Structures are given as C-alpha cells and as structure tokens.
Amino acid sequence: MFALVDCNNFYASCERVFNPSLNGKPVVVLSNNDGCVIARSNEAKKIGIPMGAPTFKYKKLFAENNVHVFSSNYALYGDMSSRVMNLLTEFTPEIEIYSIDEAFLKFDGFELFNLQEIGNTMLSKVTKGTGIPISVGFAPSKALAKVANRVAKKYPEQTKGVYVIDTEEKRIKALKWLAIEDVWGIGRQHAKRLRSHNINTAYQFTQLADDWVRKNMSVVGLRLKHDLEGKPTLDLEAPTTKKMIATMRSFESMISNYDDVKERVTTYAIACAEKLRKQKSHCNMIMVFLHTNGFRKDLPQYGRNIVVNTHFPTSSSIDIAKLATEGLKAIFKDDYQYKKAGVMVMGLTPEGTKQFSLFSAENPKHQPLMHIVDRLNGTYGNNKIKFGGQSLGRQWKMKQERLSPRYSTNINEIIAVNT
Predict the structure, then answer these.
(1) What is the reported pTM?
(2) Structural domains for the chain
(3) Of 162, 164, 239, 327, which one has the greatest count of Cβ atoms within 10 A?
(4) What is the pLDDT of residues 314-353, one digit of tens each?
(5) Which of 15, 43, 102, 229 is labelled catalytic?
C-alpha cells in the first residue's frame, strides 16, 4: 500500500503555527516580490480569492474582508517542511518527498496492520509535533493514494483527515466522484481532449481501451490508467540531483541602467553557483535572460536570452558571475525599462567526475576559496561574504513588505512568550 501525505494550506498553516490568532481568519501568502497569491487558507478561498490573484487588483478585497496577507517566508516554510518529513520517516523508511508539502510513503509488509489507525497516529503525531494539519490517503497505488488524499481533504468531517481505499467498491466510488481534470498526471490539454470524448470522470478514463490511451496519451498515460485500476506501475522515486538550476526575479521597479541590471545578474549567478556547490555539481553552460514589463503596453518591449559555454566544468561563483556578465553585455540594449532578469546553469555534471583539459583556464585557487566563502556564510548568515560585483546595500533584495519572522531558523526572531 501507498500513502500520500499532504499538508493542508501549507504556507498559510506555517504562519498560523506561530500566530494562533490567525486561526479561522482568511490568510493569503504572496509570491516573490509580493506579486500574486500562491497560497490561501480555506477562509480566503470562500471569499473568492483565486490562486494567482494579482496583489494590486485584490487590495480592496483584502481590506474589506480583513484578509491577513504575508510575503513568502521560504526559510520558515522549508524548515517546517523538514520537520514534517522527519516525523513521517518514523512510520516507514520508504518515503519520496514529492514537494515541499507532499510525500509518498510505501507500506510493504503492513498487511496485518490497521492502516486507518496508522493514518490517525500519523496525523496526530505531525499535528502535535509541528502544528501543521495534514491529510492522509492510503491506496494500492500512487495515483489512487492521490485520489484517497483528495477525498480525505474534501470531506474532513467524515474522514477525520484519513481515508483508505482498500476495497474495489471504494476505488470505483472515488473514481466516479473525481473529475477528469483533477486526476493527478492529466494536464489541461489531455483533460480537454478526454472531455471532448465524453470522458468526464476518472472512472470513465479507466474504462477506455489500453490501445487508445497509449496512442493518444503515450505510455505515461497508460501507466496512469493502470495505476488508477489498482495495478501499481508507479513506484517511489529516488532523490535525484537537479538537471538545471535557475535564479530569476522580477525587479521591485523597472530598471534601465546597465550597472543596476548587471548587479542583479551577478547576484543571481552567484546564487546559482552556491546551489551548484550544495548539490556537488558543476555546470558547462550558462543562460542569461532579460526582458521588459509585458503588462506595460505603453512602453517599448524587448526580451532576449543567450547561452554561454563555460569551456570547463565549474561551480566557482567568480567564473559563473564573470560569464553571466559577458552574456548580459551581449544582450543588453539601452532605452528599455527592464522588469525581470535571470540566470540558469545547465549541462550539470557531478563534481567528482570532472573532465580536465590541457589548456583549461580554470584557476585552481577558486575551489578552496569557494569552500571558505560557503562556510563563513553558513556560520554567520547568508551573504555576509560578498563579491565585488554585488551591492553592499542589498539593492537586489526581493520586495517582501509583509514578511513574518523566521521563528524556527533565526535565534533573533524566535517567538516571544509573555508569562
């Protein structure tokens, strides 16, 4: 059996853990630079705030309904996610962390155990240990576990947050209830095509012929169909290193000055290099992109990207920042108001299998220097050690006007208890 554990309204729940006065009140969390809504409490959903709602368009609605609005606090959310996942590993060693707020667990050899009781214990332990509410769905396959979790979340009073699909009757009933566009793994275009063939539910999808599904939705769609039929074809996936790493941001205001854009691109490149070293990889290509504000139709529009080869595998902040700057110089044009830029490192290879070149221009001093920089930043706080191309005044910092404290990761921002 598989289980899918999902944290309910995760970002909003993290804010509520340390501020219980928010319980029962509408809460939304905003994206980078406070651009749009990326998380909503149930109360916020009832008001009619959609996912992705632009902040500037909904300011009036926020004020009229006393909505509590927060900037994304990724340090807090990431730490709370780790705490939840660590508690889940106590129930089974076989776990796949699917996203920051979801995990698949595999329960092989639990045939004589009561999964409903295990789910209840899991829910109690995570809620008591972290304050984060979760929903748990058990089923014979990963796709069905997703369905079971959706039932648990949709009907909390009846399921108490835990639902087990352990009979054919339960499987068919759940699939007949689930709309085709809500099936995990079926995208918008496939859902549209299936609707055109009068396939409106997950159950109707499982009644299609295998040949038709394979022809129209490839072998991936066929595996999904079998999984929904209760025939496990999707197993837990082992953690893998990223194939590419990107850092991109919208600016807090439009920028036309080259030096200001260069400072931001340099900072993004250094952030990519730090992520590379963290996962023990090197890159062989760097892409830099830049574009104006597409929403400002009254202004001239421009956007372009460029890929620069590194000539040798590297994770050096110095090398990557230098090459990113060269790329920016090639695509930058004056007389435009730029709103967003980004850096992506590609062609990643493990640092332990580095291919050397006889004529490589790599500086052997960079690697030990980067190690020292990472250690100092890890000890004294991120960005304590900066490079020459970065602004000491942190001009590049994201707009986060409603940022809550980092209660669990910063000793200076821990919760104060009055007694």
Answers:
(1) 0.76
(2) 7-75 (3.40.1170.60), 100-228 (no CATH), 245-380 (3.30.1490.100)
(3) 162
(4) 999 999 999 999 999 999 999 999 999 999 999 998 887 7
(5) 102
